Amino acid sequence: MKNALWQQAIAISLLAGMPAVATGSELQLAGDISVSGLSSGGYMAVQFHLAFSDRVNGAAVIAGGPLYCAQNSLATAFTNCMGKAEAKPDLAVIEQYLDNLEQQQQLPSRQNLQDDKVWILHGSRDATVHPNVGKALYNQYLQWLPADNIEFVTDKPFAHHFPTDRATGTACDVSEAPFLASCNYDAAGELLRHLLGKLNPKASATTGSIWQLRQSQAGSQLADTGYAYVPEQCEAGEPCRLHISFHGCKQHAAVVDDAYITQTGLNYYADSNDLVILYPQVAVSAVNPHGCWDWWGYTGGQYISNQAPQLQAVMLMAEQLSAKN
Prior knowledge:
The protein is of the alpha/beta class. The chain is built from eleven helices and 13 strands. It has helices at residues 4-7, 40-51, 74-80, 91-103, 131-142, 187-196, 232-235, 253-256, 259-263, 266-273, 309-321; strands at 10-12, 28-29, 33-38, 56-62, 117-121, 150-153, 162-164, 170-171, 180-182, 209-214, 225-230, 239-246, 275-279. Strand 3, helix 2 and strand 4 form a beta-alpha-beta unit. 48% of the residues are buried.
């Protein structure tokens, strides 16, 4: 890992019975959680939002689509949830399935979403996930919370990536590794501002630490190690909020090094706004060769429920970071 901050990473064990913070300090994470994600991470952000809507108060989605769009089928994922212009997620069938999950107490009530904030960005030049799929996500959220609580950005000529105002990213009209583009657009600030309200200006440099987190949990197919960016004041015990950011396919640390963890812009706002940013990581496998989050069912049919292995594993990390274990 080349980044100097990355070299300073603090190892933390999240195994049962061991302390959450190796330094002896405890993070004081207050308030509800917010989430965001790109592509498969955008799908995952929606899944996490709904599965834990009693604890999550907002979600930001870049280049993603509706909850349960794939309906536990990779064929449906390719047909209705990705780059085809004729893609048409079946929101009525999905809503019926969510009703059943609620009745089985595998999802909390969607009434929890009424006061939440949602921010959706879908670039008009995205050929990986068609803009129609992003529109379906917007329409899905309109079923659950007031339109005034949703910001839907569709007028940007962006390809499939996380747009930034940094000068060192890829070209804005292409989609290529590490999928962090120079677009003269601060997506990190825009999404955090909508989810959290008024923000202090971002810091000119990051001064916090990157912590390594052990992600071991049976069936989750996560990488052995996840990461969290922790500002100095949060590490010192000041109250801070938690934001979880889900990477996209081909964007986990084993492939792009620390790029997603350090270059979206989120960490700069974390320093100036008392935020801890959790960056969970997916592992590559035979059924998931590109390191995507499970938005079509490769970990099992209940992948969107509050019992789903990946959702449970990420919430476990959030709880242990919060010193609630």
